[in-house]
Write a structure and sequence with these properties.
Blueprint lengths: L1 E6 L3 E6 L4 H7 L18 E6 L9 H9 L6 E3 L9 E5 L4 H9 L10 E14 L1 H7 L2 H22 L2 E6 L2 E6 L5 H30 L4 E16 L6 E5 L1 H16 L3 E4 H7 L5 E7 L8 E6 L13
Parallel strand pairs: 1-5, 9-11
Antiparallel strand pairs: 1-2, 3-4, 3-5, 6-8, 6-9, 7-8, 9-10, 11-13, 12-13
The protein binds FE2/S2 (inorganic) cluster (FES).
């Protein structure tokens, strides 16, 4: 029996059902690296399954071990051990020749992870709206002190909820949840963290209004989706980078918090997974990057009590 396989940017082909992806590539005369005779040792044949993951043979123990040892996980698969059971779409991931050679000469060496990959992740972008204006109009002592208190609180909450900071710029912070563990748990953690931050910032907002007549408000955008993620730079300044549509949508949600006067706005995919767990205050539709139709946006109600930010004079 035959089935179809689509190689990203190459084309669609018919192949024998039950053959491995590597066998299919060779049969079709496509270039597909293989440095270990298909014994699952060299990792030079890795592919990214873009569609039809359920039509691939299950990940067996050896493949799971070698992927995990090299910081990889499905939908990244070894082409030499993965059998095609139905239609699939994939991309061959090209590794540096030097990495493969180094690993083959010393099999105990860990090959560097792929520089970039796509993972289902929850992104949280937060800021203090109006902080820039406050910083311009206040003493350096006050602006740095307030920023420090906001960041310390945020960092504490992120630590407690398993979030990780990716980027910071003034009062704006991009954090990620789900680099490890189940995505459903990551969504609950991200929403829980956001609700506690909202409570903590209430105190801060009141303090700034009372003492500085400043109009500063919290904004948090939360979205979940396949995210391009990787590490750039070299030690000691190596850092995570997050790119793509998931990030753009998260940033758009954050922008909307200002106009909507909402602390926490989440996208529809987040809402679908939290609707039975967290109270939703309201919903409205808005334009999102990369979407033709307007998308639904949901405001999550803040927790009524919780983490309180200590406001030292
Ligand atoms: S060809 Fe070496 S791991 Fe697949």
């Amino acid at each position: 029996m035959r089935t179809s396989i689509i190689y990203h940017k190459t084309g669609r082909f018919e192949v024998e059902t039950g053959s491995t992806i590597l066998e299919a590539s060779k049969c079709l005369g496509l270039f597909h690296d293989c440095h270990c005779d298909g014994t699952g040792q060299c990792l030079s044949c890795v592919v990214w399954i873009l569609g039809g993951e359920q039509n691939c043979s299950p990940v067996e123990k050896h493949e799971a071990q070698i992927l995990a040892a090299h910081h990889l996980r499905p939908p990244i698969r070894l082409a030499c051990t993965t059998k095609i059971l139905g239609p699939i779409r994939l991309q061959i991931l090209v590794r540096e020749e030097s990495e493969v050679t180094a690993m083959m000469s010393n099999p105990s060496q860990i090959m560097p992870p792929l520089p970039g990959t796509q993972l289902p992740l929850v992104l949280m972008k937060t800021t203090l709206h109006g902080f820039e204006v406050f910083a311009v109009n206040s003493l350096p002592h006050d602006s740095v002190r307030i920023l420090h208190q906001f960041r310390s609180t945020l960092e504490t909450l992120l630590r407690e909820h398993g979030g990780q900071i990716i980027e910071t710029h003034g009062a704006s912070v991009l954090a990620v949840f789900g680099l490890e563990g189940e995505i459903r748990d990551a969504i609950n953690s991200a929403v829980g963290c956001s609700r506690r931050l909202s409570v903590a910032c209430k105190e801060l907002k009141e303090y700034l209004t009372r003492h500085f007549e400043a109009n500063v408000g919290l904004g948090i955008g939360l979205h979940v989706g396949l995210t391009t993620v990787g590490k750039i730079g070299s030690a000691p300044r190596e850092q995570w980078v997050v790119l793509g549509e998931t990030r753009q949508i998260t940033e758009q949600l954050l922008k909307l918090t200002g106009a909507a006067k909402a602390d926490i706005l989440v996208s529809e995919p987040v809402f679908a997974l939290i609707r039975d767990r967290f109270p939703i205050k309201r919903a409205f539709s808005a334009r999102m990057p990369g979407k033709e139709q307007r998308s639904n946006v949901f405001e999550v109600q803040a927790q009524s009590t919780g983490f309180v930010m200590e406001m030292a004079a």
